[in-house]
Amino acid sequence: MEQDRSSQSRPPHVLVFPLPIQGHINSMIKLAELLAIAGFKLTFLNSHHNHERLVKFNNIAAHFERYSGFQFKTITDGLPLDHPRSGNWFLDMFEDTMEPKMKESLREVLVNSSPPVDCIIADGFLGFALDVAKELGIPIIFFRTSSPCCFWVYYSIPDIIQAGELPINGSEDMDRLITTVPGMETYLRCRDLPTFCRKLDIEDSIMKLVVKQTRKSLQADALILNTAEELDGPILSQIRTKCSRVYAVGPLHAQLNTRINAKHGESYDHFSNTLWEVDKSCMFWLNKQPNRSVIYVSFGSITSTSREQLVELWYGLLNSKTKFLLVVRPNSVIGKDGEGEDVVMELMEKSKDRGYIVNWAPQEAVLNHPAIGGFFTHNGWNSTLESVVAGVPMICWPQFADQHVNCRVVSEVWKIGLDMKDVCDSKIVEKMVNDVMVDRKEEFAKSASEIAKRKIRRRSRWYNGGRFT
Ligand code: UDX
Q1: Residues 225 and 373 in one domain
Q2: Is residue 145 part of a domain?
Q3: Are residues 412 and 388 in the same domain?
Q4: Per-run averaged pLDDT (10 residues), the chain, 469 residues
Q5: Which Gene3D superfamilies match (predicted)?
Q6: What ipTM does the predicted assembly reach?
Q7: 467 bridge partner residues
Q8: Which of 77, 123, 402, 419 is catalytic?
Q9: Domain of 347?
Q10: Are residues 307 and 255 in the same domain?
Q11: Within a domain: residue 67?
Q12: Which residue has the CA at smallest separation from atom 9 of ligand 1?
């Protein structure tokens, strides 16, 4: 059932559709805003649940009303209203519970859209959008929120298995190199593969789902990645051997900031698109700290830590010679009998003169504050890019998905951080913080600042008269 999309007297209508998770909404709403600035009519399709939170914690109406063609639409994410949607929930619920309802709702939005949608930009994890687009005859581009390196590793998993490099035998050396991912033969180790690759079962359902979605991403009309040629050129070349239309349009937050600053001036208060209430008090605390003296510690929007891990981290930070700003998201500490949250209160009490704890920080602003000298991160791709652009070296403590590969790239390829993968010990935390913030401070600051400088060439023409160039 095709709609009439022949009228080109109006701006092209693009529908942007993210996976309903903070890390995915963040970059896709930025892409949507860039397209709105370029003159497209834009529909941003969000889940009811996340849209409510976007409205609650951000001044959405005031921000987006400047784009006359920008609208939000909402659909179900397929989960019951009372589902907590915290922890790593979506991988377990995705195929059976979320996908069928989201697919049906997407179809309904597209069929009823006026003017008709000319192009869908869907999250690469939402492979079902390709089936709907084909059925309705609408061009579709997939956008992957994870790194190109991770995309390429996911794509290569069947080849790694075929070559006998997976499964990993539990007792063997996790530092063994994986030789079957083209372009990464010299640095990708077993321990840098996504965590689901550590299972002995090569039929693991999550691994199969991720491979399926990744391979499907290359069947779309084009693939967009949130990176720059200058950062990930060699791996982008590898991906282009499988799909000729691969566009590196990022880092999107930097692209958007450049355009908004040009239009409204540097002091303009950027839209934060956050799903939690931002505690800006930490900025006042940072204002009182010397330049490059504070390490920022935050693990994104999904990762949880155990009570024991948080205590190890905290003692490591406390025993280091550095002040810290720590984010502990609500419900992100897993303890016995609800003990998780208590430990945060105890830490707050003990760390008054050494650190500052918030539930959710204005991360981009924090990373760009002169007092910040390092970022203790889980290496989610948004956090990694935000740190790269701000020129802040990292201590990498990845937890799952693309984070392990990102961590390896940061520490071994770009050499702008230290790898703390698979360890959580206060002595090691202390040593790494001292290395990045004190003992090897100048070395890391120099490499981080060099990579920040080459992060993005200004792109003035990635949209040209209704066509991507
Ligand atoms: C997830 C995956 O981990 C990530 O690798 C994938 O590419 C996208 O989805 P998440 O784990 O939340 O995302 O990490 P990340 O990609 O780093 O995104 C977190 C975002 O939340 C960042 O843009 C960060 O600026 C923001 N944030 C985080 C805040 O604004 N305040 C905070 O206190 C913490």
Answers
A1: no
A2: yes
A3: yes
A4: 63 96 92 94 95 89 88 92 72 82 97 97 96 98 97 96 88 88 97 88 84 95 96 96 94 90 69 86 96 97 89 92 92 70 71 87 95 98 96 96 96 97 96 98 95 62 37
A5: Glycogen Phosphorylase B
A6: 0.98
A7: 464
A8: 123
A9: 280-456
A10: no
A11: yes
A12: 23
Decide if 49 is catalytic: no
Q: How many domains does the chain have?
A: 2
The pocket around ligand 1, CB under 6 angstroms, is made up of: 21-24, 26, 145-146, 274, 298, 300-303, 327, 360-361, 363-364, 380-383, 386, 401-403
pLDDT at 465: 36
Same domain, 284 and 254: no
CA-proximal residue: ligand 1, atom 8 (nearest): 23
- Which tokens hold the place of 80? 């019951």
SS3 call for 400: coil
pLDDT at 71: 96
Shortest CA distance to 123 belongs to which of 208, 27, 255, 194?
A: 27
Claim to verify: residue 103 and residue 216 sit in the same structural domain: yes
Q: Probe ligand 1: pick from 214, 301, 385, max atoms within 8 Å of CB?
A: 301
- 3-state SS record for 261-280: HHHHCCCCCCCCCCCCCCCC
Residue 410 maps to a domain: yes
Q: Which of 24, 253, 378, 404 is catalytic?
A: 24
Side-chain-side CA neighbours of 260 within 13 Å: the count stands at 22
Q: Which of 231, 266, 301 corresponds to the end of one domain?
A: 266
Query: Cα(465)–Cα(469) distance, rounded to whole angstroms?
Result: 9
Report CA(271)–ligand 1 centroid distance (Å): 16
Interatomic CA distance for residues 378 and 305, integer angstroms: 11
**114-131 burial code (b ≥16 CB/10 A, e <16):** eebbbbbbbbbbbbbbbe
Residue 200 located in a structural domain: no
CATH number for the domain harbouring residue 222: 3.40.50.2000
Tell me whether residue 131 is one of the annotated catalytic residues: no
416 and 387 part of one domain: yes
Cα of 433 vs centre of ligand 1, distance in Å, is 21
Say yes or no: 258 and 286 in one domain: no
Q: In angstroms, what is the span from residue 169 Cα to ligand 1's centroid?
A: 32
